[in-house]
Write a sequence for this structure.
């Protein structure tokens, strides 16, 4: 074999998986249908938590929380090795009403997560809603585009080949083993194949997908430019979130749209998001709007990813279906998948991530 593993998909999950393999001594090639990190990995907000965690199944919060614990060391190692700062920092999250206060209190107590009842304006003085809120100081964020650049550079250092514009069009099979993948750039063979194709994963696997249920879900976001310090913490109300960057940029998201593989932006979403902004931060007008974009999340039932070996092919694996939390789950998912590949014991029960 020309390499140990071929990873299909160069989003954050694919890059993290390839890096984990390389760090454990495997020779890896990554194939990407478009450009590195160009889909939902780039488009997302980078909040490192389920939102809010008490609304999700234990299989989601177990993985997000474990991955959150890995993130500081992971980000530091990337920064140290590449000199590209992913801008990991604990900015904290302010949760505005309405939400289930008792469910929040119980979940945070059981999971040893700090949560403090506060007045909203005590944490975010510029917010127009003065109300009883919940402050989660441990919630962190990362700047997705910079994380992608750091991962890409780190893979270069590790001698991992990443080939863009190299879409997998077919599989060659012999006796329940994959022999190679066919692309416009030729065939690639390896001992193992790992699909990390995000919203395209089920399409990539095709007739062998069995009962996978990974579908594209569009999310649209707006980007504003304010003065640094205008907002210093994440703000969440229902499905609306404001994410401040250190340089004064503020991301506002997000929508959840089932429109297939259509990643275009719409005026309707723009108007809706601007309306949401006006209710909490009237200063965030269209005058401060820098950009609007859309990404296609890899939607999955209950937001639970699939991280497993194919039931019929010993050398086909998947790490996909992370829906809204691909960035959050990236270092943890990569470690779980590589543990499986190398026969290393897992830190917890991984049966919820089995191939359906």
């Amino acid at each position: 074999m020309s390499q140990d593993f071929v990873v299909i998909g160069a989003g954050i999950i694919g890059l993290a998986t390839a890096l984990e393999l390389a760090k454990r001594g495997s020779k890896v090639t990554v194939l990407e249908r478009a450009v590195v990190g160009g889909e939902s990995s780039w488009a997302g907000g980078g909040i490192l938590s389920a939102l809010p965690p008490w609304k999700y199944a234990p299989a989601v919060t177990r993985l997000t929380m474990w991955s959150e614990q890995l993130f500081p060391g992971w980000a530091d190692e990337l920064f140290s090795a590449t000199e590209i700062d992913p801008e990991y920092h604990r900015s904290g999250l302010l949760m505005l009403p309405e939400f289930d206060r008792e469910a929040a209190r119980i979940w945070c107590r059981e999971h040893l997560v700090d949560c403090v009842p506060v007045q909203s304006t005590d944490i975010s003085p510029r917010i127009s809603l003065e109300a009883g809120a919940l402050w989660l100081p441990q919630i962190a964020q990362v700047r997705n585009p910079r994380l992608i650049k750091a991962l890409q550079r780190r893979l270069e250092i590790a001698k991992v080949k990443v080939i863009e514009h190299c879409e997998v069009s077919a599989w060659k099979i012999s006796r329940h083993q994959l022999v190679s993948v066919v692309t416009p750039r030729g065939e690639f063979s390896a001992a193992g194949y790992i699909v990390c194709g995000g919203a395209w994963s089920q399409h990539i696997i095709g007739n062998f997908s069995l009962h996978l249920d990974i579908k594209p879900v569009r999310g649209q976001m707006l980007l504003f430019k304010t003065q640094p310090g205008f907002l210093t913490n994440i703000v969440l109300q229902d499905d609306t979130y404001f994410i401040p960057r250190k340089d004064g940029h503020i991301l506002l998201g997000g929508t959840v749209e089932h429109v297939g593989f259509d990643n275009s932006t719409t005026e309707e979403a723009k108007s809706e998001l601007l309306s949401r902004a006006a209710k909490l931060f009237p200063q965030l007008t269209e005058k401060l709007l820098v950009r609007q974009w859309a990404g296609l999340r890899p939607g999955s039932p209950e937001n639970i990813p699939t991280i497993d070996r194919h039931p019929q092919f010993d050398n086909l694996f998947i790490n996909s279906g992370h829906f809204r939390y691909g960035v959050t789950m990236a270092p943890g998912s990569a470690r779980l998948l590589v543990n499986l590949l190398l026969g290393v014991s897992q830190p917890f029960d991984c049966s919820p991530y089995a191939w359906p």
